[in-house]
User: Fold this.
Amino acid sequence: MKRFSGKTALITGASSGMGKDYARLLAAAGAHLVLTARREDRLVSLRDTLLAEFSVDVLVLPVT
Assistant:
């Protein structure tokens, strides 16, 4: 069920741990995502994975 279809979620600390896990769960539920963390390479990798698996929009915002 796509309970979050059409919604957008902001996830901080998305490059690893719980942030990454929440990103996967919300993408699977149909949410579009804004991912932020310090490690841009990991955010980009996660974005590419989520796009391929769930076809949701994912915006990456690295923070320093």
Notes: Helices lie at 17-28, 40-54. The chain has two helices and three strands.
